[in-house]
Design a protein that fits this description.
Elements lengths: L1 H15 L2 H30 L10 E8 L4 E4 L3 H10 L3 E15 L5 E8 L3 H5 L5 E2 L15 E4 L1 H8 L9 E4 L2 E8 L12 E4 L15 E6 L5 H18 L1 H4 L3 E6 H6 L3 H32 L1 H9 L4 H37 L14 H26 L2 H10 L8 H36 L10 E7 L8 H16 L4 E8 L8 E4 L1 E2 L11 E7 L3 H5 L3 E4 L13 E5 H7 L9 E3 L10 E8 L14 E5 L7 E8 L7 H11 L8 E3 H8 L1 H35 L1 H9 L4 H30 L15 H26 L4 H5 L3
Parallel strand pairs: 4-9, 6-8, 16-21, 18-20
Antiparallel strand pairs: 1-2, 1-10, 1-11, 3-4, 3-7, 3-10, 5-8, 6-9, 7-8, 12-22, 12-23, 13-16, 13-22, 14-16, 15-19, 17-20, 18-21, 19-20
Helix pairs in contact: 1-11, 2-9, 2-11, 2-12, 3-6, 9-12, 9-14, 9-20, 10-13, 11-12, 14-20, 14-22, 14-23, 15-18, 20-22, 20-23, 22-23
C-alpha cells in the first residue's frame, strides 16, 4: 500500500507538471464518463430499480387478449375479473382498477383531479402502507350503495389540506357527492399513473356486461408461483369462460405480464439505444486520451530509460504508468459525476411525463460505484498499451544511448495511434448514422398529417358531476349553452365538444354488426367510437368525403345516425356507397337492438399516436348520446391560449362550481404525443455531436503530432525544393487515408448496428441512402478541416531550423 501511495503521489505530480495535457484529458474523460453515468442513472431508475413495493417481482398485470379480433392486449370485462378472482389459485390477491376524472369542490376553489376507482383488495395487492388511517377499503364499501369513502394521495393532502392530521373522518365533495376520508397514501404513490385519490370501484354486477372491457387488473402471485404457471392457469380459466359464455368470451384469452415490464416497455428500446450511444462516446473519449498518453510517453522516454538503468523493472514501470493513468481517469470520473448530476436533472426536467418512474432517477450509491468501475477499468484498458510501449527494452536502450527519436514516433507507436484513430472515426460514424436515422424518422413523424388542422385550437377538459347533471338532457343542455356562448367570444371562429379528443385516446372500442354483412362467431369487426357535437368536424377541419355531418336535429328521440371514417367505410363496405347502410352495437338477433344509419364519411384521424396508422373509427352525435366527460375544442383566429381566460369566464358563468381540467393548445397535445421520441432524438443527436467533436479533436491531435515528429523530414523536403502545396497535400493525404479507412469500417458497423433501430424508426429504412451518403460526407468534411490546420502549420517550417532539429 505504501508503494501504491507513492505511485499515486508521483502520478499527481506528473499530471500537475503537464497542466495543458491534463486539462484536455480531464475534460474529454468528463464528457465521456459523465454521459455514461447520466444514462446509467436513468436506466437504473427506470429499468433496473425494483418497484417500490414489497416483493415487486410478484406483481403482475392481467389483461385480456384476442389477437384474431385485433386486440393482442386489451382491458378486462369486470365480470371476467370477478370470475378470475374466484377461480384462480395462483394469485394471493387480485384487484381491479380504472382511471377517472373527478371534480373536487368544497371550501376552496373547485379542482379537476385524477382518481382511481379500485376494488377492495387493491392496496393489499401492492402492499401499500398508509401515512394516516388505512390504505384499504372494506368489502361493504366496495358495494353499490355502500359507504362513500376516499383515500387521498399525500400530494393532494399536502397541497389542498395543508397536511392536516385531522383530515381523517372529514367529508370532501367529489362530483357533487360527499365522501369520508379514511386514509392517506404514502409519498410518491400515484398508481394508476398520476392518481391523486382513490374511491371504491363498487361494481354493480347486475348491470355489467361481459363484453364491456374497461378495467385493469393487478395481481400478486403466491410465493413460489412463476409467471409461466400463472399464465397456464389464467389461460385455462379464460378457456372455460369462453365455453361458458361464447357470445361474449369466445376467442378471448388472458395474458399475465410483470407490472414492471409493462410500465417500461415503451421506453426500453430507446434507453437501450442511448446506452449503446454513450458507450461509443466513452470509447471515442478514451481513444483520444490514449493518444494523448502515447504522445506524452514520447517526451518521457529518457526519464523511463534512466529509471530502468537505475534498477526499476518493466513491471514496476508499467505499474507506475498505469497508476498515473488510472488517477487521470478517476479525476475525469469525478468531473463526469458532476456533469451527470446536472445532466440527469436536465433530462428529467426536459419532459418528466415522457419518462416513466422519472421521480426515481438520480445519482445514488450504485451510480457512484458504476462510475468508479468505469473510470478504473477504462483507465487500465486504455493505459496499458501506452505503458507497455513506453517500457519497450529496445526503445529505452536507444533513448539512453543517444536520446533518439521519441518513442511514440516509432513504427509501433504510430501503428497503435493509427488504430486508435481508425476506431475513433468508425465509432463516430456508427453513432452519427444512428442519429441521422432517428432524426430523419422524427422529422417524418412530425410531418405526419394527423387528419385535422392543428394550429389555432384550444383544448379544455370538462367533467360534469353526476349529482348535478344526472341525465342526458341536462348534460346536453349544459354543452349547448357552453358552445353558444363560447362561439360568441371575439376571436372564436368555431367551437365543439368531443370525448375523447384526438391523439389522447382511442375512444370506446366497440364491436358491431353491419346489416347484410354476416360475421363469423367472435369475428365481429370493431371501431373506435367518439361522441362529438354537431360542429366538431368543421371546428377541427376534418374533411367530409361523403354525405353530411351531424346537425342540431340529431338528438335523443330522432333516428339514430352514425358517421364513419374512410378506413371503416373501405373495410366494411368495399366498393360500395356506405351512406344509408345500417349497423348495430347490440345483439343483432334481438328485436330491441338499436340500429344506426350511416349519414356521412369523413377523413381519417390519428387516434392515439402519430406513428400509428388510422383504424376503423366512428362518431355518435353528442346530443343523442350525451357523455358527462367531454373536451371543449375552440378554433381561434389567433393564439388559442390568449382566449383561455375568456373561455374560463364563460364556464364559470354557467357553473361556478365546475372545475376546469387541463387547458392547452392542440399543438401542446401533438407535442405530448411525440414527447418520448423527442427526448430520444435530442439525446442521441447530442451524443452524436459530441462524438463528432471528439473525433475531430482526435484526428487533429494525431496529424499535429505526426507533423511535429516529421519536422526534420519536412525541413529536408523543403530545403530540396518541395513546395508548400506539395507538403500540405502530403500531410492531408496521409491523414485522410486513415480517415477514409475508418469510414469504410464505420459504414460496415453502422449497417449492422442500425438493425437494432428497425423497430424505432417511422417511415425510414435502416439502409436509408440519404443518411448513408450525407453522414460520411459530414464526417469526412470535419476530418478534412482537422487535417488542414496542422497541415498548413507544416508548411511554415523553416528549412534551416528543421535541419538543426534533434
Amino acid at each position: 500500500m505504501e508503494s501504491l501511495w507513492k505511485d499515486v503521489r508521483f502520478g499527481l505530480r506528473s499530471l500537475r507538471n503537464n497542466p495543458a495535457t491534463t486539462l484536455v484529458a480531464l475534460l474529454t474523460l468528463a464528457l465521456g464518463i459523465g454521459a455514461n453515468a447520466a444514462i446509467f442513472s436513468v436506466i437504473r431508475g427506470v429499468l433496473l430499480q425494483p418497484l417500490p413495493y414489497p416483493h415487486p417481482e410478484r406483481l403482475m398485470v392481467v389483461m385480456e387478449s384476442n389477437p384474431q379480433a385485433g386486440f393482442p392486449r386489451f382491458s378486462v370485462a369486470p365480470l371476467n375479473f370477478r370470475d378470475w378472482r374466484e377461480q384462480n389459485r395462483v394469485f394471493e390477491h387480485l384487484a381491479a382498477f380504472q382511471s377517472m376524472r373527478l371534480n373536487l369542490t368544497g371550501n376552496d376553489k373547485p379542482e379537476a383531479v385524477r382518481g382511481g376507482g379500485v376494488s377492495a383488495g387493491f392496496f393489499a395487492t401492492l402492499g401499500v402502507k398508509p401515512v394516516l388511517g388505512r390504505a384499504s377499503f372494506h368489502s361493504e364499501e366496495d358495494q353499490p350503495g355502500g359507504p362513500q369513502v376516499v383515500i387521498l394521495s399525500q400530494a393532494i393532502w399536502q397541497r389542498r389540506y395543508g397536511s392536516d392530521p385531522r383530515i381523517l373522518g372529514r367529508a370532501i365533495v367529489l362530483d357533487g357527492k360527499s365522501y369520508t376520508v379514511v386514509g392517506v397514501a404514502p409519498e410518491g404513490f400515484d398508481f394508476p399513473r398520476k392518481s391523486e385519490l382513490w374511491l371504491p370501484a363498487a361494481f354493480d354486477w347486475a348491470k355489467e356486461h361481459r363484453g364491456a372491457h374497461h378495467i385493469g387488473v393487478l395481481g400478486r402471485l403466491r410465493p413460489g408461483v412463476s409467471v409461466t404457471q400463472a399464465q397456464v392457469e389464467m389461460s385455462g380459466i379464460a378457456a372455460r369462460l369462453a365455453r361458458q359464455y361464447p357470445d361474449a368470451d369466445e376467442g378471448w384469452g388472458a395474458l399475465v405480464i410483470p407490472l414492471h415490464d409493462l410500465l417500461v416497455e415503451d421506453i426500453r428500446p430507446a434507453l437501450s439505444t442511448l446506452e449503446i450511444a454513450v458507450w461509443l462516446v466513452l470509447l471515442i473519449a478514451c481513444v483520444n486520451v490514449a493518444n494523448l498518453l502515447l504522445a506524452r510517453m514520447g517526451t518521457r522516454e529518457r526519464e523511463l530509460a534512466m529509471r530502468s538503468a537505475l534498477g526499476a523493472g518493466r513491471t514496476r514501470l508499467v505499474r507506475q504508468l498505469l497508476t498515473e493513468t488510472v488517477v487521470l481517469f478517476a479525476g475525469g470520473g469525478l468531473l463526469g459525476l458532476l456533469l451527470a448530476a446536472w445532466g440527469t436533472r436536465a433530462l428529467v426536467a426536459l419532459n418528466p411525463d415522457a419518462i416513466p418512474r422519472s421521480g426515481e432517477i438520480g445519482i445514488d450509491g450504485w451510480v457512484l460505484l458504476y462510475t468508479a468501475a468505469v473510470a478504473v477499468v477504462t483507465g487500465v484498458i486504455f493505459g496499458l498499451a501506452p505503458a507497455l510501449s513506453a517500457v519497450s527494452g529496445r526503445r529505452m536502450f536507444a533513448a539512453l544511448k543517444e536520446g533518439g527519436r521519441a518513442l511514440a514516433g516509432g513504427t509501433r507507436g504510430r501503428l497503435i495511434r493509427n488504430l486508435l484513430v481508425l476506431a475513433e472515426v468508425a465509432g463516430a460514424l456508427v453513432l452519427l448514422v444512428a442519429a441521422g436515422l432517428i432524426l430523419r424518422s422524427f422529422a417524418r413523424l412530425r410531418a405526419v398529417d394527423p387528419g385535422f388542422r392543428v394550429p389555432g385550437l384550444l383544448v379544455v377538459d370538462l367533467a360534469l358531476p353526476e349529482a348535478k347533471y344526472p341525465d342526458d338532457a341536462r348534460q346536453a343542455g349544459f354543452y349547448r349553452q357552453l358552445l353558444e356562448r363560447v362561439r360568441a367570444l371575439p376571436g372564436v371562429e368555431r367551437a365543439a365538444s368531443v370525448f375523447p379528443p384526438p391523439l389522447e385516446g382511442r375512444g370506446f372500442v366497440l364491436s358491431f354488426e353491419a346489416q347484410g354483412k354476416p360475421t363469423l362467431p367472435n369475428k365481429a369487426p370493431s371501431a373506435n367510437i367518439r361522441i362529438v357535437s354537431p360542429d366538431f368536424f368543421q371546428t377541427l377541419g376534418i374533411p367530409l368525403r361523403r354525405g353530411r355531418v351531424f346537425s342540431e336535429s340529431d338528438r335523443e328521440g330522432s333516428q339514430p345516425v352514425f358517421i364513419v371514417n374512410q378506413t371503416m367505410a373501405a373495410k366494411i363496405w368495399p366498393g360500395e356507397n356506405p351512406l344509408g347502410k345500417r349497423l348495430t352495437f347490440d345483439d343483432a338477433s334481438k328485436p330491441t337492438a338499436k340500429w344506426y344509419t350511416v349519414v356521412g364519411v369523413v377523413g381519417d384521424v390519428r387516434d392515439a399516436k402519430l406513428d400509428q396508422e388510422p383504424k376503423s373509427a366512428g362518431y355518435w352525435p353528442q346530443f343523442e348520446n350525451a357523455a358527462p366527460s367531454s373536451t371543449l375544442v375552440v378554433r381561434t383566429s389567433g393564439d388559442p391560449l390568449a382566449l383561455a381566460g375568456a373561455v374560463r369566464a364563460v364556464i364559470r358563468s354557467l357553473d361556478r362550481d365546475l372545475p376546469i381540467g387541463r387547458l392547452r393548445s392542440m399543438q401542446d397535445v401533438v407535442a405530448a404525443s411525440l414527447a418520448q421520441n423527442e427526448v430520444k432524438t435530442v439525446l442521441i443527436s447530442l451524443f452524436a455531436a459530441l462524438a463528432l467533436v471528439l473525433a475531430a479533436v482526435g484526428i487533429y491531435g494525431l496529424v499535429s503530432y505526426s507533423v511535429s515528429q516529421r519536422t526534420h523530414e519536412i525541413g529536408i523536403r523543403m530545403a530540396l525544393g518541395a513546395r508548400r502545396g506539395e507538403v500540405m497535400r502530403m500531410v492531408v493525404r496521409q491523414g485522410m487515408g486513415l480517415v477514409l479507412l475508418g469510414l469504410v469500417v464505420g459504414l460496415a458497423g453502422a449497417w449492422f448496428a442500425s438493425r437494432l433501430l428497425a423497430g424505432q424508426l417511422y417511415d425510414v429504412r435502416i439502409g436509408d441512402p440519404l443518411t448513408y451518403l450525407f453522414v460520411p460526407l459530414v464526417l469526412a468534411a470535419v476530418a478534412l478541416v482537422a487535417n488542414l490546420v496542422p497541415a498548413r502549420r507544416a508548411t511554415w517550417v523553416d528549412p534551416l531550423e528543421a535541419l538543426r532539429y534533434e
